[in-house]
Design goal:
Radius of gyration of chain A: 27 Å
CATH architecture of the largest domain in chain A: 3-Layer(aba) Sandwich
Oligomer: homodimer
Largest interface: A-B, 52 and 52 residues
Number of helices of chain A: 13
Number of strands of chain A: 15
Largest sheet of chain A: 7 strands, mixed
CATH superfamily of the largest domain in chain A: Response regulator
Shape of chain A: elongated
Strand content of chain A: 15-25%
Structural class of chain A: alpha/beta
CATH topology of the largest domain in chain A: Rossmann fold
CATH class of the largest domain in chain A: Alpha Beta
Chain lengths: 342, 342
DNA sequence: GTCATGTGCTAAATGCATTTAGCGGATTCT
DNA sequence: AGAATCCGCTAAATGCATTTAGCACATGAC
C-alpha cells in the first residue's frame, strides 16, 4: 500500500553487514567496558550501523531490561495558569538531557483518576513518577503501592514522600527587603487567607509566605496599615479590599499582594483613583503569572519557580535521591515597573 | 533491597494457574473472534487473570505487534498562554478514551529541534504524530520522511498535510451578529495587522478572521469608525489605539478587539475615561484566554477551541483519516459581562 | 466400518536486543 | 613440551505476548 515495506534495520542486519556476531554488535554499540574486541572490529561495526541507520528497537530493549527510559508526569491540572505548562517544560528539558521521554496524564483533581493514572503508568513500566499539583496543599493521596520511585512537585502527602516546593520561607523576607529599598515607610498587606495562614500543616506555601512576610515586617521599621483578609485570591477580592482601604483613608507607600490575580484587582482599584503603581506608590506581588507582564505598568512579582521545580524532580528521580523529605527552590524577584526605587 | 522481588505476573503464570496454554490465555484475554474455546475454559482463564492481577507487558506487545499505543505530541510552545495546555488536555483525554498514551516534546519554535523531536518519536515507535502550533501560520516545516501518520493542529505546512484549524471563516460573522444584538449602531474594529491580513496564504487564521469580520460588517447596517491598525497584538497596542481613538472624538457603541490581549489594553484606556464595558458600550473579543475572565467586567470573547482541536487530531490519527486537507472546529462565543443586550 | 468434518486446544515460531558461558587459537610460564 | 593464561569472539538463552499450523478426539454421513 504505502512504501514497499520499509523494513526496520535490526541488530541482525548490522551483524551481517559488518561480518560480526549480534553479540559483538550489541557490546560495541553500547560501549560495554571490559570487552576485548579489536579496534578494527569496533570500527567496522560502527560504520555499518551508521551506514544502515541502525536504531535499537526501544520495545525490545525495554522487554529485556525492564527499563523504559520513560518518566510519567501526572498533574492535577494542565489547563489553568502558566504553572502546569512551565512545570512540563522544566520536566521535558531535564528528561531530554538525560535521554528520557515523558508520558503525561491529567487528573482534574479527582482522586480516583489519580489512582487510575498511576496504574496506567505502572502498567506502562515508567521508570519514575512525578506528581504535580497546582496549589501546594498537603493531601491524603492514598497512593497505590506500585513500587515506583515518586516525587511530588508543589504538594505534600500525609505519608512521608519526596517533595519539591518553592522556598516560601525566604519569599516574604525578600519582599519586605525590596519594599524597604523602594523607600516606603508604610505598607499594606493585601490578601491574607485566614484558614490557610493558620494551618501550616495543610497549606505549607501560603502559611510560609505569610509567616515570612509577617516576621520580616515585624523586624522592619515599616508601618503596617490595616489588615486585609480576603475570601479568595481573585482579582475581585483584591479590587474590593483596595477600594475599601482607600475609602477608609489609608494611603500606604507600598502594597504587597498575596498573588498576581489579587494584584490585578488592586491595579484596577488604584487606577480608578488615578493612582499609578511605580510612581505614586509601589506594588509588589507573588507568583509571576502571565498577567504580571500584561498589566500596565508591568507588575514586579516574586516568581513561583515551576520550571526549576520540575527539572529538579526529574534529577531526583534519575539520581535515585529518594529519601523522603522536602527540597526547596528559591523564588526569584522579577523586577518590572510597579516598584519605586532601584 | 526493596520488596522481596515483586515478580511480574506474566501470561505463563495465568496459563499455569488456569491449566490452559499460553496461546489459549492470549486468545481469550484478547477476545479473539473465530476461536472455539469452551465457556468453562474462558471463565477459568479470566478468573485466573483477575486473581493474579495479570497485565500484559506493554513492551512485549509492542515488540510483537510493532504498535505502541502511544501518540507523540510535539508543540512549539507549552509554556505560553492557555492554548498549549488546553490542546494537551484535549489530546490527553481523547487518547485516553481510546486507550493510548501521549509522549510530549517541545521545540521552542526551533526547526532543528522539531526534526530532532520527530526523530525521537519515530525512534520510540509512536503510532502517530501531532504537531501543535501556537500561532497558525503556514510554515515550511521540512518534515523528515518518517512514514508516521501526522496531523497539524493550528498550523499549515507548505507541503500538503492533514490540519486542524479553528473555523475563523465564521468567527467574524458571529461577532458582528452579536454586536447587532447589542443594539449598537456604530463599531470600531481594533487590531488589524496589515501584513497578516493581506497574506491569507501565510496567515490563514488572522486573514480569515478579518475577512469574515469585514465581510459581515459591510453587509450590516453598522457604521464602522476609524481604521485601527496595530503593530502587534499586545495590551499596549490596544491601549494606545483606544486612547487615540477617544482623543480623536470617536465614541463607538461597540468595540471589536482582535484578541483578548488587545482587549485588555482597550479596557485600561476605557477605564481611564470612566467608560465601563457592558454599560456605556460593548466590547467583544477573540481567543478567550484566561485573562478574559480576570478582567473587570469579565470579557465576552469568541473562543479558540484548542481542546476540541486537539481531540479531533487524535481521532483523525486513530481513525486513519489522513487525506491531506483542513478540518475546522467552530469557535463558540463565550458570553460574559462586556456586551450589552441579550 | 470408513472417510470427512468439526471441535477444543496447544506447540512452536516470531519480534529484537542483551548478556552469560564458553570455544578455539595464540602466547607465556615452568 | 605441556600446562596455564589470555584474547577475540560467538552461540544460545532470555524477556513476554501473539499467532499460525496442526494434533487428537468426537461426531456425522454413507
Amino acid at each position: 500500500m504505502d512504501t514497499p515495506k520499509a523494513k526496520r534495520v535490526t541488530i541482525a542486519d548490522v551483524s551481517e553487514a559488518s561480518g560480526m556476531s549480534k553479540a559483538a554488535v550489541s557490546l560495541i554499540l553500547n560501549n560495554k567496558p571490559g570487552t576485548r574486541l579489536s579496534v578494527e572490529a569496533t570500527e567496522r561495526v560502527r560504520a555499518a550501523a551508521k551506514e544502515l541507520g541502525y536504531r535499537p528497537n526501544v520495545a525490545a530493549q525495554s522487554l529485556r531490561s525492564g527499563k523504559t527510559r520513560t518518566l510519567g508526569l501526572i498533574s492535577d491540572q494542565v489547563t489553568v495558569t502558566r504553572f502546569a505548562s512551565e512545570m512540563i517544560t522544566g520536566i521535558l528539558s531535564a528528561a531530554e538531557k538525560r535521554d528520557h521521554t515523558v508520558l503525561i496524564a491529567e487528573t482534574f483533581g479527582k482522586p480516583d483518576q489519580l489512582v487510575e493514572a498511576i496504574e496506567q503508568m505502572a502498567h506502562r513500566d515508567v521508570d519514575g513518577l512525578i506528581l504535580g499539583f497546582m496549589d501546594s496543599r498537603r493531601r491524603d493521596l492514598k497512593l497505590p503501592q506500585t513500587g515506583l520511585p515518586t516525587v511530588l512537585v508543589n504538594g505534600l502527602d500525609e505519608s512521608p514522600s519526596v517533595a519539591v516546593l518553592p522556598n516560601e520561607a525566604m519569599s516574604g523576607a525578600q519582599a519586605v527587603q525590596r519594599v524597604l529599598e523602594s523607600g516606603a515607610r508604610s505598607v499594606a498587606l493585601i490578601g491574607a487567607l485566614e484558614g490557610a495562614e493558620k494551618d501550616p500543616e495543610t497549606y505549607p506555601s501560603i502559611s510560609r509566605r505569610f509567616a515570612s512576610l509577617r516576621g520580616a515586617l515585624a523586624e522592619s521599621s515599616l508601618e503596617v496599615l490595616g489588615n486585609w483578609v480576603l475570601e479568595d485570591w481573585n482579582p475581585t477580592d483584591g479590587y474590593a479590599a483596595t477600594t475599601q482601604m482607600l475609602a477608609e483613608g489609608f494611603r500606604p507607600d507600598a502594597i504587597i499582594c498575596a498573588n498576581d490575580r489579587v494584584a490585578m484587582g488592586v491595579f484596577q482599584a488604584l487606577a480608578e483613583k488615578g493612582l499609578v503603581p511605580g510612581e505614586d506608590l509601589s506594588v509588589l506581588s507573588f507568583d509571576d503569572e502571565i498577567i504580571a507582564s500584561y498589566l500596565r505598568p508591568r507588575l514586579t512579582s516574586i516568581r513561583l519557580p515551576y520550571e526549576k521545580m520540575g527539572a529538579l524532580a526529574v534529577d531526583l528521580l534519575l539520581d535515585r535521591k529518594l529519601e523522603p523529605g522536602e527540597h526547596q527552590i528559591d523564588m526569584p524577584l522579577i523586577e518590572r515597573d510597579s516598584m519605586k526605587g532601584e
